[in-house]
Amino acid sequence: MSEELKNKILEQIKIGHVKMKPKFRFVLESFLYIFGIILASLFSLYLISFIIFTLRASGALAAPGFGLRGIGILFVSLPWLLIVISIVLIIIMELLVKHFSVAYRRPILYSLLFIIAFSTFGALVVDRADLHQALFKRARQNQLPIAGPLYNTFDSFKPDNLHRGIILTVSTSSLELQTLRDTTSTVSFESLLEKYPELLEALQEGNPILIIGTKIGTNITAENIQVFDFGDNLEPMHEMIHPTEPPLTH
Fold first, then answer.
1. Fewest beta carbons less than 10 Å away: which of 18, 122, 131, 132?
2. Residues facing 178 on adjacent strands
3. Distance separating alpha carbons of residues 165 and 13, to the nearest angstrom
């Protein structure tokens, strides 16, 4: 540092334009910024992966298989409030990261794209780790007291005409459907057989299916049906929970 620059800095300190801060304050501020980044990152990873889970569990993620109407159903099913919160978290992370000189010297677009890519990729990893599936199953068994209500309303975002479940029984023109909520409905698909005569052969007991149709009470009039591999291990409770056998007595 040149003598001239040193004198200028000292002069600024004397007139109060520059204030010296103790070292522990810099350390504390850095710690708080790092803690905030970690907290926002974890929360955003959880939230984005939960959004993916809700779309998958409700069947909305597979709805585009029905064509343009299915794409519209997916769009309507998006949990916009959670998406907005996720965007806010990403913005918060960007503001916190810009505090550090490494990120401050780079264009804001670079760091923002990195944060978005990190959040998206991390959320996909969390989703594939079956974290939410495990928590969802615990919630259905009333073993998740705090986050249970969140998982028990996983399909509250989807439209009423989208139904996911597993076939219990099949007759010539209807079937019994069991949902992830462990409720059963009678699905009538007689009107589809004229257009899709091979449908009856495709509908087998135990198959997971996705239905677009109007529901009145426990009856669903199917407008379209497809057998889907939803890419998860979620099943109705009767498929998952088995009664414990009583101990043998002598």
1. 18
2. 166, 184
3. 71
Please report which confidence band the pLDDT of residue 150 belongs to, taking 50, 70 and 90 as the band edges. Answer: confident
Tell me the torsion sign for CA atoms 36, 145, 153, 155. Answer: positive
The C-alpha angle with vertex 78 and arms to 75 and 79, in degrees rounded to 5, equals 155
* 220, pLDDT greater than 90: yes
State the pTM of this model. Answer: 0.76
* CB 145 within 8 Å of CB 46: no
> Which of 90, 122, 149 delimits the end of a domain?
149
Burial 218-246 (b: 16+ CB within 10 A, else e): eebbbebbbebebebebbbeeeeeeeeee
Burial of 121 (0-12, 13-18, 19+ CB in 10 A): exposed
Domain count, the chain: 2
Is residue 134 a part of any domain in this protein? Answer: yes
Count CB neighbours of 101 within 10 A: 8
Nearest to 231 by CA among 208, 202, 206: 208
Return d(Cα 201, Cα 107) in angstroms, integer: 58
